[in-house]
Amino acid sequence: MNKLLNKILINYPYFFAVILFAIGVATIVTRSNMFKKLLGLNIMESAVYLMFIAAGNIRGATEPIITDSNAGSTIINPLPSALMLTGIVVSVSVTAFALALILRMYKHYGTTDAILIAEMRDKNEKWGNK
Amino acid sequence: MMTTAISSNLPVFVVIAPFIVAFILPTISRRLRLVESLTLVLSILLVVGAGLLTHYVKAQDTATFYSMGGWTAPWGIELKIDSLSAFFVLVVAGVSLPVSMFSVANLSGEVGNSYRTTRFYVLYLILIGALAGIAFTNDMFNVFVLIEVATLSSCGLVSARNEPVAAHASFTYLILSTLGSTLVLGGIGLIYILTGHLNMRHVSAELAQVWQSSPHVVWMAISFFLVGFGVKTAIFPLHIWLPDAHSTAPSPASAILSGLAVKGFLLCLLKVLYNVFGHSIIFEFGIDRLLVLAGSIAIVAGSIFAIAQDELKRRLAYSTVAQMGYLFLGLGLMNTQGLKGALFYLASHAIIKSALFLTSGVIISTTGKKNVRDLAGVGRKMPLTMAVFTISSLGLIGIPLFSGFIGKWHLLLGGLETGNFISVLTIIAGSVLCAAYLLPVIRIAYFGSAPEESKGWKDPGLPQKTSLVLLAALILFLGVFPDPILELAGSAAVNLLSSG
After folding, report:
1. Would you say B349 and B421 are in contact if contact means Cβ atoms under 8 Å apart?
2. Are B175 and A102 within 8 A, CB to CB?
3. Average pLDDT over every residue of B435-461
4. What is the least distance, in Å, from the CA of B133 to any CA of chain A?
5. Using one digit for the tens of pLDDT, what is the confidence trace for A84-116?
6. Labelling B363: which of A6, B215, B219, B235 has CA 20 to 30 A away?
7. Do B174 and A94 touch (CB under 8 A)?
8. In-domain check, residue A69
9. Distance between CA atoms of B320 and B324, rounded to whole angstroms?
10. B148, B168, B175: residue with CB nearest A41
């Protein structure tokens, strides 16, 4: 038990990434409001970014810019940070597109609740006036 | 000089040509005819490029690696040109040509004015480019970027019709699909932490040495990949977004989404499972049995859901859920026969499902009837459309002389080889169930008495007719002369099973 606690304390960024990930998934699955679903998705993505960046970090190492003064010292791995820049760009475009869709639905249905919209759609299909 | 520059960089051109044309199109959106012909020319060029690549691959014994921008393997991004990628590019090019031809002078009715139609073509070409990229890529992070490009353009295509229903379907698809990509990214992260590489060759070499010391991380990564790609390929029960998305999209988009997009994600899963993890890890964790089980459940459940649908396009969408089950089943059989059958079935289903969605699109836009029970009289008023629908239905059921039969036959042989009789039974049961949901459509269309309003119904225009005939000819050709494609699929299967 003590050993496990120690492991968590040493690897705390990963521990927080797991918690964030769980929060994100739970929000997407349990909330019917589409804005909250989108927020949950963003939280979940942040958790993965955190995991990547934590993987690239080395405690006590300097930034990966080599000058005369830090030549030879340990530097952190810049690759995960560069990759996550791409990931953030992707998630921004997903968020923008999702917001546009929410706006279009709100104009027509007057709500941002996914369950209410599904009910309205069912009713329309039943009466055949799409 | 020019020709050598093109031929030695051919895979790159196949991937970036659709992107380049896609970004030119918005500047000429006033002239819709030019947009359409540019798309058509590009589709023909893609077929030529894919043919040349296949020719090149067949002459080669081993895979060729292309370093993007001259940066070599562990640092740069690598493209892998082997029989698997040539096969998939051939499928993408072969299906996108008839679909582009079908869209000529036909889209505005479903999508809207010329600006909206141009935007549709932009998204369509980006999707094609991303799928071609998925075929070649040999880099884990590149896989993530390409699946995100494919996902976003697919969502755009689903919402192309200016209807709130389309927005709702697209939103559901976007959220679930991005959830899937995030899981995949998590899996890639775990693999990167474990091995320090992103290039698939290096990852697999490193993973073979370290996986036994940390099996939990490998197990976590595999489950991330399985669930992530499972959502994207709509394997039952992760399919809930698919029927809505594929049935509300415009019909060329449904064809390309059901025919190609889900297969692109399946190809990623195939590459990750076989080229990265390799079969010792797959056997160790029992992934093969899991895939066969998931596939069998998907075949049965998807078909039963399809029988229950009365709306034609929804029925076809549920049928995609069932047919994806065959591909998963073939992936899980872990022998050359089964994998070859699954790859051939992938090509066959891509053509058949596109033909089915395009013909149903024609039927729906001409008659205005969405439900199967209202289709009486269509067979006599629209003979060509319904003939193509019948040929594709027989192909999907798996009647000999049609392409579906060859794929199912090799899957059956693969199932018998492993002695897994559940898979053999579900393959046969799937065919029967498939007949149960497709034959009633044909029966009503041909033998129902035509209503009064059917006087004006007729077959579509020349480009649409050509594209439908092309698809039907492909189905028959692959059914009678399957050897060239089957050989390519077979060599891809041998390569996949020998690696790792």
Report:
1. no
2. no
3. 83
4. 17
5. 999 999 999 999 999 999 998 898 888 888 888
6. B235
7. yes
8. no
9. 6
10. B175
The arithmetic mean of pLDDT across residues B271-288, rounded, is 88
Q: How many CB pairs under 8 A join A and B?
A: 75
Tell me the longest C-alpha to C-alpha distance in chain A.
Answer: 76
| A55, B189 Cβ separation under 8 angstroms | yes
To the nearest whole angstrom, how far is the Cα of A105 from the nearest Cα of chain B? 6
Q: Residue A109, exposed/middle/buried by CB under 10 A (0-12, 13-18, 19+)?
A: middle
CATH number for the domain spanning A50: value is 1.10.287.3510
Range of the domain at A37: 2-58+74-127
| Residues in chain A, overall count | 130
Provide the token pair at B301.
Answer: 């459940």
Residue % of chain B over a pLDDT of 70 = 99
A80 inside domain: yes
Whether the predicted pLDDT of A47 surpasses 90: yes
| A11 is a domain residue | yes
Residues B70-112: tens digit of each pLDDT: 788 788 888 888 889 999 999 999 999 999 998 887 777 777 7
The span from the CA of B429 to the CA of B297, in Å, is 11
CB contact under 8 A, A98 and B168: no
Beta strands in B35-93 (DSSP E): 64-67, 78-81
Mark yes or no for CB contact A25/B192 under 8 Å: no
Number of domain units in chain A? 1
Question: Are B152 and A93 an interchain contact pair (Cβ–Cβ within 8 Å)?
Answer: yes
For residue A65, is it within any domain? no
User: Are B129 and B498 spatial neighbours (Cβ–Cβ below 8 Å)?
Assistant: no
Which residues contact residue B137 at a Cβ distance below 8 angstroms, ignoring those fewer than 6 apart?
A: B77, B79, B80, B143, B146
Decide if pLDDT at A130 tops 50: no
d(C-alpha A87, C-alpha A92), whole Å: 9
Residue B146 banded pLDDT, cuts 50, 70, 90: very high
ipTM associated with this complex? 0.91
Q: What mean pLDDT is reported for chain A?
A: 86
Q: Which residues does residue B64 pair with via DSSP β-bridges, in sequence order?
A: B81
